[in-house]
# Entry
Amino acid sequence: MTAQVDYLVVVFTATSGASGELLGSDEKELEQLVWQLVDVKNEKLGKVNELLIKPDLSDLTEEKEEVEEHEEEEKRSRADNVYTATSLETALNLFHLQLTNEVNSAGAGTSVCLCTDGPLHIRQVIHPEAASKNILVPDCFYSFFDLRKEFKKHFPTSDLKALNAHIMAESLSIPVDVPAMLDPSATPDPSAILSAEIAVQQVQVMGSIVLALLSEPFSHTFSTHERVSEKFETGTCSKMEKVCDNTVIRARGLPWQSSDQDIARFFRGLNIAKGGAALCLNAQGRRNGEALVRFVSEEHRDLALQRHKHHMGIRYIEVYKATGEDFLKIAGGTSNEVAIFLSREDQIIVRMRGLPFTATHEQVLTFFSPEEGLKEMCPVSGGKDGILFVRYPDGRPTGDAFVLFACEEHAQCALRKHKEILGRRYIELFKSTAAEVQQVLNRYSSAPLIPVAPAPLVSMLPTVSLLPPPGGMRDCLRLRGLPYTASIEDILTFLGEFTHDIRPHGVHMVLNQQARPSGDCFIQLTSPERAIQASQRLHKHIMSSQRGANSRYVEVFACSAEEMGLVLMGGSLSHTHTHAHTRSRSGTGLSPPPCLSPPSYSFAPAPPVMSAEAAAALYPPIGQVLLAPRHLPPGHAYYPPSAQLYMNYAAYYPSPPGSPTTLGFFPSPSSLSSPGGLVRMPGLTYNGNGVKDLLSAMQGYQCPAESMSLLSSSLMGQSSGGDASLMSLPALMTKPAGPYLDLTLL
# Structure
């Protein structure tokens, strides 16, 4: 709007809670709406109107006193016209009706715009309450003039946040009888509730200020108003884009099913930048209840921070400051394919999860096509171009896809297909956002999946390669895709006749980081021939679980003991095993455990926990720590027998196997021998640092009480609850096979 408006409507609101600069920050409801019409061309003031919003409590005897108080306020009011309403919706419609009638009766023009003392009355009171109650706001509340900003154009040195009606009137030499509550010389109390009389006086003062600005010598023109966004605009954001740190907030505590439109509704009244609502995902690709929101200016960001612990439904939402870098990590993208996919505006995005890896565009289109006898239509917008499959960097599908729909009706029809079957799998459907598309694509296309390598305990320990040598006897089975409720008994039932070929303690259940079954299992058999036969007969057969009704097909592969040991120590095997078992060395798909920091991973350098000098003082020579193992019969190499190992099992996944109970033994060079050893026991409980308890734990060793010592927590830089004990072993236990130390007792 560039031309002068015909009428200004000076508006002032009051809630049942805080006032002043904290107006609207406590989610209190609107109780009073006062306005006055200003004829801009003729420089005349209209009548002062007051609208009181109160529920109908006349039938409740315990509320009669409050009703009588409101009636007394109406009688004492200095307004020309006093109206009452029982709800916010009724009040807003009544305001719009009375304003329209007054403008039509004046007959001096038709263009009308609101004018307030600061943005809080519109942005923090009317729009948030209307959004929380699903009330449509009249169009006149989507544009307004901020009287403070208009005043500052003629008084540039004024502090915008410190301005109020009294200061502006005083600067314009307007004689006003302002109550002590609004006197700037007095100490204001923002938490105090304004009386109805003060609200009317505020409007009268603001009307006088508007007339003063319109008259000589200012001759001010009210031409450029502020706008309140009616709709959140979706869009894309490039990682190369510059985002100001003072325009971003982090919202925490969102319901998991909330969308970007729900976030925009929570911040209704504030202008969010295009594509500025980004939902955050956890490590499993699911929403974690957080979102990053980018606003158009710092002013709107500051107003958003005042909505800290406001409610979305029954949950309160925490609002904190964030940075532009945080926002770009979530919402920024670099893929041209994603940019083209998201370039279609006004499209509804639906995320598909759990797709078969062999799913095609035609199958997805068929999935959303209407069934026979049903009239519901949910056509995919753009056909094949409206489908985006998520893939790993090597091109393998992840089982996720995003689909575009032209309107909300088609998207809701598509979401009703949640958990329907495509192929042999049920498909999960969720309403998604452009930022979530970017985030999912960024996550799957970046490597490594573990972003930070843990700091080494002692910096001087060498790093070694754990990749098993090429070849090897493939006398083990890998079972992948087990039901999560499957037990060892279920696995033995699945193996059938091959159960007799399992070595003692040869079933290894692989657990994840939360100590739950990961769906993988390793079986040690007596011969490679039986392993090959088992993989050929049982591959993709169905396994049922006695503890659950679910059943799944299980993939069965033959592998070597070295490959099994690699996975159990935290490494990974490729998912591209061939059934013919004719892979070359370059095609094994082996990757070392994440703790070894291979050169292809770009970990940030982490400082060592201890310096080399401190480590030398704490730890004896290597030969006193790593002791010679007990010899094992062939076929029991749980971990690579040719490598010197230095591992911290607590930091990596998958966790050690649940069966057998022994983890195997760590080899050391035969040249390193020592008559004694030193054992470190970290992670002792608060009440477990007595010598008596340590003796009980080491009862299987020749360890007198005088040889034990407790390490001070200050040496390790740990809290008192994490003290580590040092226990000296005077001599190794000897067996016919030689001296040994069984680490499972530690």
Notes: The radius of gyration is 36 Å. The mean pLDDT is 75. The chain has 20 helices and 30 strands. The longest strand covers residues 30-39.
